[in-house]
Amino acid sequence: MRIDVHTHFLCLDFVKHLQGRAAMPRSVLEGGVYVMECAAGLRLPSVPNIVDMDVKLKDAAALGIELSVLSHGIPGPDVLGGDEADDWACRMNDYLAGIIERYPGRFLGFGNIGFGSVERSIAEVDRCINQLGFKGIQLFSNVNGRVLDSAEYLPVYKHIAQLGVPLNMHPGIPLNQVGIDRSSLMVPLGFLFDTALNTLRLIESGLWDEAPGLKLIVPHVGGVLPYLKGRIESYGHRTLQFHDQAALQQPIGHYLDKLFIDTVCYHPEALDYCYRLLGAERILYGTDHPFGDFKDAADMVERVDWPASDKQRVYEGNARALLRL
């Protein structure tokens, strides 16, 4: 069985709501299709296999995927700010719950939070997990242009950790867009840099020392983190000492080793490196459907020389344990 932990849907009502905004993200209607203008040079059409679940399921069947964990594509509700962000997080979660109900046994969900207020965000996390039955929470790599370790957001993460469900960090529009003015730079580079930056900020905040049970999925094979692990361990620890920041209880590599990654990768040697570095138990199967070359990503595990038992863990076993299926 293949459980896809990285596959997207869009709430079309939310996309429509973004029409007419002066600032990005916003949406425009072109030829009967809503196109999201997420940032300079990045336009994403609302293609059928992200808004029509019948079409999505046909793609999943062709890829051999039996169970898909849906998460909302960019942008998330946080971009609206305040009560509006929290209101739309609720609406998007209701929409996702409706999809899961209409297609029993085919979809699970990662819930959305707006971060408009700590109280409403925590309440929505509880509703997502305890009432709607979602298996985790979607987190973008920044919250409406603010770093993830901003003090007001930390109570939300700690609460999620107490519930024992994972946070799935997906790239948002990067905080730093200097020189990143087209999609060919933003999607393969800017997205992953933003993910790495904010993951390290969360680690250096001491979040895992206060909430050691926190489970964070860093998609796209961990972005750039696996390849920079040695440098981060060597220089990152010294930087903390030199800058007189709060000391972590463990070397920084300890926290990097606690992260989960997914298999969304387009290069088997790179995926195999992550396997040798982290071990099969930290890797989850994903496709990033319908973005990128999702067919290539879906087949990547078959192209690496791993024991069948480890492939099965990646395809299914790790997701079952992490999502408590």
Summed up:
The chain is of the alpha/beta class and 325 residues long. The protein has helices spanning 12-17, 48-51, 53-63, 82-102, 118-131, 154-163, 183-204, 207-210, 219-222, 225-242, 252-256, 268-278, 294-298, 308-323; strands at 3-9, 26-30, 33-39, 42-45, 67-72, 107-111, 136-140, 167-170, 216-218, 260-262, 283-284.
How would you describe this structure to a colleague?
There is one protein chain. The protein is α/β, with parallel strands linked by helices and about 325 residues long. It has a single domain (about 5-10, about 50-325), classed as Alpha-Beta Barrel (TIM Barrel), CATH 3.20.20. About 45% of the residues lie in helices and about 15% in strands. The chain has 14 helices and 11 strands. It has helices at about 10-15, 50, 55-65, 80-100, 120-130, 155-165, 185-205, 205-210, 220, 225-240, 250-255, 270-280, 295-300, 310-325; strands at about 5-10, 25-30, 35-40, 40-45, 65-70, 105-110, 135-140, 165-170, 215-220, 260, 285. The strands form 2 sheets. Strands 1-5-6-7-8-9-10-11 form an 8-stranded parallel sheet. Strands 2-3-4 form a 3-stranded antiparallel sheet. Strand 10, helix 12 and strand 11 (about 285) form a beta-alpha-beta unit. Helix 4 (about 80-100) packs parallel to helix 5 and helix 5 runs parallel beside helix 6 (about 155-165). It starts with a strand and ends with a helix.
Descriptive tags:
8-stranded parallel beta sheet, alpha/beta, 14 helices, 325 residues, TIM Barrel, globular
- Backbone CA Rg: 19 Å
Number of helices: 14
Uncertain segments: none
Element order, helices and strands?
EHEEEHHEHEHEHEHHEHHHEHEHH
Main β sheet profile: 8 strands, parallel
Mean pLDDT: 94
Distance between the termini: 13 Å
